[in-house]
Amino acid sequence: MSAAGTVAVADLTRARRRTGRIALIGLGLLAAAALVLSLGTGPLAIAPDRVVAILAEAATGRVVPGTDSAVVLAVRLPRTLAALLAGGALGVAGALMQGLFRNPLADPGLVGVSAGAGLAAALVIVLGDRLVGASALPAMALPFGAFLGGLATTALLYAVATREGRTSVTILLLAGIAVSALAGAGTGILVYLSDDRQLRDLTFWSLGSFGGTTWSKLAATGPLLALALLGALTLARALDALVLGEAEAQHLGIPVERMKAAAVVLTALAVGAAVATAGVIGFVGIVVPHLVRLIVGPAHGRVLPASALLGAALLAGADTIARIIVAPAELPIGIVTALIGAPVFLHLLIGRGTRLA
Amino acid sequence: MTRSLRLAIALVTLLAGAMPDPAAAVDLADTPIVSVGGAVTEIIASLGAAERIRAVDTTSTYPAAAVAGKPNVGYMRQLSAEGILALGPVRVIAVEGAGPPDVLKLLAEAGVKIDRVADEPSPAGLLAKVRSISALVGRKTEGEALTAEIEAGFAALARERAMRTAHPRVLFVIALQNGRPMAAGAKSAAAAMMLLAGADNAVSGFDGYKPLSDEAIVAAAPDAVVFMDRPGLTAADLLALPAIAATPAGRRNAVFGMDGLYLLGFGPRTPAAARDLMAALDRHLAGASK
């Protein structure tokens, strides 16, 4: 009887692991499909075989100049890669924060990085303009400033929450709310000071867009996104142990303090670099890990890679839609992620929400 | 994951040396134009080149014949690189401030000719704008005629203005924000138009457009309130605000709207718009004193 019970449990574990593996493969295929769709779709119709031919030409370094190759290589490819990387990084950052705070409502914005990046961006748009003029402002000033602002706010928060080498997750959360409010007030002052044009820039920036992603921009922020993404994947075991509680995780041999620091730094890196690439894109960080848990269960070994894949697929897909839906104009991507993601999420919650409760 | 990343990085390095050549020259005289900026579109149409406009932006609303049925590339500050490339071989004539800068850079790299036109809200700025656009579209003769016409318009306006004794204090409201009027301060197109119409800006101390407090509105004591005509903003909305109702303008009912592009666009119709504003102010202030 008990032997049969053990076998049944082993079977169940194996079955669950197999479902998880299948789900991961499925999400990987979804991300790949989003990549192909994104490269092959846009207001300019380019046949799939032509896209492949252009990529092959590029790979061998012999590009025939023309509108098609310019669109695929200079317009679509960098923004698609940026969307995949930023989506993956935001998805994984959300999973990290929800794991660290042991709360499914945690969001990467909680560690202050979004608010800090927003304040820095407003500083660059409004004050940079006053000091040197919009045209004299270096193109990288805005992304670079946003990135630094995000990191600086997170560093401040972490310093506030750390006493004698121990970081209190509760203080981190509460201080995050306070610092975000402060940064929001700073942004508010700058919004008040801004003129009509700067206000429009701020608004568009806060809705996010991958339009205008160049190779040089991707080269600057892409490695940071990749670093955050890959670094996050190494924290799966520690996050699983943390579910039991900090002391218990410590007993299991997890260096809890180091792991908390790593989670915060990686999140700041991911969100800071994503904001620097495309402006503020909400929704992905908080919702993707939820969707993923509905599919692969709670183990972080699967949640983290699955969040990366689903985030990547979601943003690349949303960017494709943003590009074609009002062509030849373009919709900010933050609108698209919320417009498409939120109803799907609600639908899933209504259908399968009991699992979360 | 790692492998696909490595692949992506390899692609980045490969492509850095394989970008298409931007110097693919195009014949500018016949290339269709994407006109970005309401005044740019108006000027191109006034030069008789409307049929060359392939697409416009959302700020281009006049003349109807030049913009109706043409693809719209979106708001001038939020253009899309691929969307414009998809229109075929085009050149972009954009008002200063169009963007985002990265998108314009991408377009230029893809071989699209992009010209930026300075946009200073003043008669001299308007004439400079007409001259540079007429040079860009190869209609210099028409450009000379148009600048002469606009100069004559401004001269006539100046004569009318010189005969006036009254200088009404005007509050210009561009929009209501949470029930608060966003008023035009110094260095705005609205302030420039008030000067042209022989009126004084009732508010000062800030540049551009800012929300005004109730007390500031009462203290400004405008003789008239002019607002930008748009859906959801009417004279009744403004008169319903106690602060505006308490001003001389509110008491006299001297609150009226004008079309935004017409009044603030600094295009070929600007002298006429200033005269219209002048006449409308006279009408409202005269009607009120009865």
TrEMBL record, chain A:
One of its GO terms (cellular component) is plasma membrane. Keywords: Cell membrane, Membrane, Transmembrane, Transmembrane helix, Transport. Its main location: membrane. It is found in: Cell membrane. It is a multi-pass membrane protein. InterPro entries: ABC_BtuC-like (IPR037294), ABC_transptr_permease_BtuC (IPR000522). It holds the Pfam family FecCD. The chain crosses the membrane at residues 22-46, 81-101, 108-128, 140-160, 172-194, 214-236, 261-288, 308-326, 333-350. GO terms for molecular function: transmembrane transporter activity. GO terms for biological process: siderophore-iron import into cell. Gene3D superfamilies: ABC transporter involved in vitamin B12 uptake, BtuC. Belongs to the binding-protein-dependent transport system permease family. FecCD subfamily. PANTHER family: ABC TRANSPORTER PERMEASE PROTEIN MJ0876-RELATED, FERRIC ENTEROBACTIN TRANSPORT SYSTEM PERMEASE PROTEIN. This is Iron ABC transporter permease. It comes from Prosthecodimorpha staleyi.
TrEMBL record, chain B:
It comes from the Bacteria. Residues 1-25 form the signal peptide. Residues 32-289 form the Fe/B12 periplasmic-binding domain. Gene3D superfamilies: Nitrogenase molybdenum iron protein domain. InterPro entries: ABC_Transporter_SBP (IPR050902), ABC_transptr_periplasmic_BD (IPR002491). Keywords: Signal. This is ABC transporter substrate-binding protein. It comes from Prosthecodimorpha staleyi.
